[in-house]
Amino acid sequence: MVLTGGQVVVETLVREGVPYIVGIPGHGTLGLSDALVEKGQDRLKVLQVRHEQAAVHLADGYYRVAGTPLAVFTSIGPGAMNTVIGVASCYVDSIPVLVLTGNSHTHMAGRGVLQEIERKYDANSLAVFEPIAKRIWRPTGVERLPRIMQRAFAEMLTGRRGPVVVDLPMDVQCDSVEVELGGPETYRPTGPVLPDPGLIERAGTLLEGAKRPVVVAGGGVIAARAWDELRELAEFLGAPVVTTMMGKGAFPEDHPLSLFHGGSKGTTCGNAITAQADVLLAVGMRFADETTSSYRQGVTYAIPPTRLIHLDLDPTEIGKNYPVEVGIVADARAGLAAILEWLQTKGEPRDYTHGRYFELIQILREEWLAQVRELAESDHSPVTISRLVAEVRAFLDRDAIVVTSSGNTQAQWFQEAMVYEPKTNLTTGGFSTMGWTVPAALGAKLAAPGQQVVGLVGDGDFLMTAQELATAVQYGIPAVYVVANNTGWIAIRDLQAAVYGEERAVGAEFLTGGEPSSPNLAALARAFGCHGERISAPDEVRPALARAFAAGGPAVVEVMVERDYPLSGSPAVGWWDVPVPAYMGERRERYERERAEER
Ligand SMILES: Cc1ncc(C[n+]2csc(CCOP(=O)(O)OP(=O)(O)O)c2C)c(N)n1
Ligand SMILES: [Mg+2]
């Protein structure tokens, strides 16, 4: 068949089963947008957003729930550049999204076309994506486009996944080519990367002999849908499971073997158990600094003497941060299943509900839960974020999806709320991008219309992409936002207070005339056509949530929360390397002593 470049894009998206293309058109993308109308019809729906960053976050949220990618389209120049934060967030968290950007006609490139970047290289905006996308392409003729589209899908969906960018010159969108398009099975592999049997035997042998085995699960477990294998293996070994921020939800947190999380934003029980492990099985995770308490020996990990088995799809993660005893490159599900199978052929499962190790796990778990309960039961008014987290959790269904991005709400949902099912805790784990929650929750709701979707978000974060409430209203996407309004970037103020001293907490509050002040976010939501209300007392949370869900459309519950330190957040756990200025005397000396213990 003969297709224009725009039509090649649309046909490939349709054959890949992509349901939505999200973006904002401009003169740089007219050939593509016309093809969407011409060729897309009902097969590919176009979603307009109000900012291109939001388009990528929406696709990101969609993928995390649906497990299939969306496409994003932008015009040339600023439209394309606006996606940068979205693409980088996807890259760090290994989330596939296809970003299609418009650019100068091939025959005009370098002349200074409207919105072209060309002072160093012609039509050079693509270079901005080089460090933040898994792969980038710029077809210089329409005949190259069909193969590039196929390679783009193969690249983003194979191996460690990630975002890709295809930059489309305006003429390439409109020129035509004779093509035969094959189905996805003709150009990209399916099926998992299988582990090496010899390594599985070594891992199995180590785990079989372990007295205090621990499993650490990261986002790779969820990406590989390996949660059943994770649970079976943990129960077989009687091993507690801790997760990273991206891994939260991979293991039910009301399971007696769950010790929640390790790291600087982790839990006391998670840190205690990983630091004492004799054998650690780390799956689909990369030992990032927050997860490890900045590598300070003995705070979260002590590797060695702990013997590490690291299973990951990406060979570059193995041995990167800690020395491994066994490093296995494989799909998390295939790897866990293989270890489990090996163990099953060698012996009987341990009784994971009895024994000294199990008792230790229960004591640690109960100690932590008692701390959380105390925070959650606070009757303080205005409500604390801890109490808010508890009220939201108590209101929601077991399979409700909660979306967080940065600030105290992210940290406290992570630490203090139990998550029971995979893909119900969505968070920008590695890039911690403010502005992510509002659009990502829309993507999540599109992917799971039958599940409750709540964006639990700070006022600062909310204000970075609040314009997407217009998108929510336009398409009737009933996400519910709980905005914890403490009139400021209070996580940062609290960090200053905790590390440098309360008197040095400056520059992170929203003040007018020296007093905290905030726009009325509930009124803002109503101005967009959403349900919106503002509350501040603990016992108002659940009734307000009930009204927000009953409203049936997008809704904002603005919760005026306690803003005074330390009730504004929750106690720190673990350690984090936050450099202290050399002029800070004792604080600096302590920092240097602690830093000296990093490995
Ligand atoms: C885009 C972006 N800019 C800056 C930061 C640094 N940062 C991390 S948390 C935070 C404050 C978040 O404020 P808010 O959303 O109101 O939540 P709060 O901490 O007040 O609960 C900031 C500025 C970030 N994570 N992302
Ligand atoms: Mg705030």
What does this structure look like?
- With 599 residues, the chain is of the alpha/beta class.
- The chain has 22 helices and 22 strands.
- α10 packs parallel to α12 (332-346).
- The site of magnesium ion (MG) has 8 residues, from α17.
- Thiamine diphosphate binds at residues 406-409, 432-435, 458-461, 484, 486, 488-492.
Features:
binds thiamine diphosphate; 6-stranded parallel sheet; alpha/beta; globular; 38% helix; 16% strand; binds magnesium ion; 599 residues; single chain
What low-confidence regions span 5 or more consecutive residues with pLDDT below 50?
A: none
* Total of helices: 22
Radius of gyration: 25 Å
What is the average of the pLDDT values? 97
Number of strands: 22
Distance between the termini: 60 Å
Which word captures the global form? globular
Structural class: alpha/beta
Estimate the strand proportion: 15-25%
The helix fraction, in percent, is 25-40%
* Major sheet attributes: 6 strands, parallel
Report the bound ligands by name, code or SMILES. thiamine diphosphate, magnesium ion
Strand order of the largest sheet: 3-2-4-5-7-6
At a glance:
By secondary structure, the protein is α/β, with parallel strands linked by helices. The termini are far apart. The protein binds thiamine diphosphate (TPP) and magnesium ion.
Secondary structure layout:
Blueprint: E1 2-4, H1 5-15, E2 20-23, H2 30-40, E3 45-48, H3 52-66, E4 71-74, H4 78-81, H5 84-93, E5 98-103, E6 135-137, H6 145-157, E7 164-169, H7 170-174, E8 176-178, H8 197-208, E9 213-217, H9 219-223, H10 227-237, E10 241-243, E11 258-261, H11 268-276, E12 279-283, E13 307-312, E14 326-329, H12 332-346, H13 356-376, H14 385-395, E15 401-404, H15 408-416, E16 425-427, H16 437-447, E17 453-458, H17 459-465, H18 469-475, E18 480-485, H19 490-500, E19 511-512, E20 515-516, H20 521-528, E21 531-535, H21 541-550, E22 555-560, H22 585-595
The structure holds thiamine diphosphate and magnesium ion (MG).
Residues 407, 458-460, 486, 488-490 line the site of magnesium ion (MG).
